[in-house]
Amino acid sequence: MLCSRIIFVFILSNFIFCRGFENDYQDAVDLNKADNKKSTFEQENTDEFEKDKRKSIVGSDDRIRVRPASSQVLPFGAVVKVKISPRAGSCSGILVGPRHVLSAAHCFHNGNEYLAPKKSLNVGVLQSNQRFTWYRVRQVSLPRAWYSTTPMNPEVDYAILTLKRPHGRSYLPIKAFSIKKLLPFNSMHFACFPNDKQENSMWYSSCPVGWQPNSTSYRTVIMNTCDAAGGCSGAGVYVLNPRNQNRYIVGVLSGTVNSRAKNVITRLTSKKVKEICRWIGRLAKSGCRTNGIQ
């Protein structure tokens, strides 16, 4: 049944490939519908960004709940929930090292001050029984440019949380791609813990690779039409190499465009990857031995 669906979509769109683990959910998005979404937004001015708790749903809600068993293996086994404070709420993140979580800077710092002390931060790893194992945070690392950002700049909206103890999970490598090199991947993916769903439920989103905004102010962000909601900020956005089934974290979900139903991704560049690797160490499995831009 799944293969028949893939063949059908291939005929309509001329290009589709089987994504490894995501076959358990919905192997192919409706590319015709997604392409229509993209063309609708592509020419819009994208110079306003907003970090808020409202949904960013384009057309129908295509998010898919990740099954409990599937949440234990990659790529979903690397997805975490980050509790900040009762006032600041929660974000999502992705494991990129044995004690390291990649997330969004705005979840922890507003450009002028921290939103909560480190001792109040907790990173939750979802277990097969749908309960979280919580880890305390030792260090929050932010790009230097973030501290002088007013308003908060999505180009530098990334952070690394260093945990006090190893999480014991497999994690995904980071990699820098130019927007031109990302386009052949066709699809982008992320999973997160949205605030509009049950607290311990993980949800998966996928959509065509986005586009760079027209504004000259934002050269290293990607606009996309993936569905998301509050609580998904900080989710690791990845692509899948169909030849070897390898996944690479290529960006961080930053927020939504003000008054627009689309999301903003902070794209990882070689400079950003180099900075992240200084924070976590040159770990081969983290992608920190080969951090040149692709």
From TrEMBL:
Q: Does the keyword Protease apply?
A: yes
PROSITE patterns for the chain: TRYPSIN_DOM, TRYPSIN_HIS
- Which InterPro entries did the record assign? Glutamyl_endopeptidase, Peptidase_S1_PA, Peptidase_S1_PA_chymotrypsin, Trypsin_dom, TRYPSIN_HIS
Pfam families named in the record:
Trypsin
**Domain of life where this protein originates:** Eukaryota
Any single biological process term in GO: proteolysis
Keyword Transcription regulation attached: no
- Which UniProt keywords are given for this protein, alphabetically ordered? Hydrolase, Protease, Signal
What terms describe the molecular function in GO for this protein? Answer: serine-type endopeptidase activity
According to the entry, every stretch annotated as the Peptidase S1 domain falls at 57-285
The secretion signal range is: 1-20
Annotated PANTHER family:
SERINE PROTEASE (PTHR15462)
Give the family per the record: Belongs to the peptidase S1 family.
Provide the protein name.
Serine protease 23
Q: Which organism is it from?
A: Stylophora pistillata (Smooth cauliflower coral)
